[in-house]
Amino acid sequence: MAQQTGATHDMPKVQDPILEQAKTETRFWTKVDKRDGCWLWRGPLHRGGLGNGGGYGRFYTKGLTVRREFYAHRIAYELLNGPIPLGLTIDHLCRNRGCVNPAHMEIVSVAINVLRGIGPAAQHAIVIHCPKGHPYDLLNTIWEGNGWRKCRECRRAYDRKRNQLPHRRIR
């Protein structure tokens, strides 16, 4: 008869993925305060300012070798609605970054999400006239390579003024 050493700690740990997922989901939902309207995340939040993900819920999953961090609102959405398509993101329609209620979320492109926000790109996008009052329209807008737009009428006036100056010779 073979002798047992009793050293079970040498055996690799085998996890049942379905059981682990159920445990993870249970742990996730214990951190959600479901009320009428927004479902508030009661777990840790990202620190940082508006552009650094500040205010979004953080959720950690434990694997055999790695601990991974996820946005809580994305987990809630995927648990109740399925995967988020590649290249798309979630827009919080309620504008509450701590909300994980999938009914308050919409799947959109990153560009749409940015333009719906309050950051600089959204603020510049709503400007429809140059500082001198000329319209930013199809005929009067010059698009720079860096994405900035310039007023064609103002550019012409600048070029006319510049061309009236005496030319200097460079030696």
Outline: elongated
- Could you spell the SSE succession in H and E letters? HEEEEHEEHHEEH
* Number of H- or I-type helical stretches: 5
First-to-last CA distance: 101 Å
Give Rg in angstroms. Answer: 27 Å
Biggest sheet: strands side by side, in what order? 1-2
Low-confidence sequence ranges:
1-8
Q: Sheet bearing the most strands, described?
A: 2 strands, antiparallel
Mean pLDDT, nearest integer?
Answer: 84
Beta fraction: 15-25%
How does this model look, in words?
- With 171 residues, the chain is an alpha+beta fold.
- Helices cover 28% and strands 19% of the residues.
- The protein contains five helices and eight strands, in the order αββββαββααββα.
- The chain has a two-stranded antiparallel sheet with strand order 1-2. Strands 3-4 form a two-stranded antiparallel sheet. It has a two-stranded antiparallel ribbon with strand order 5-6.
- A hairpin with a 5-residue loop joins β7 (141-143) and β8.
Which keywords apply here?
two-stranded antiparallel ribbon, 5 helices, 171 residues, 19% strand, disordered N terminus, 8 strands, alpha+beta
Q: What is the gist of this entry?
A:
It is built from five helices and eight strands.
Topology summary:
Layout: H1 17-29, E1 32-34, E2 39-41, E3 58-62, E4 67-71, H2 72-81, E5 88-92, E6 105-109, H3 110-116, H4 120-125, E7 141-143, E8 149-151, H5 152-163
Antiparallel strand pairs: 1-2, 3-4, 5-6, 7-8
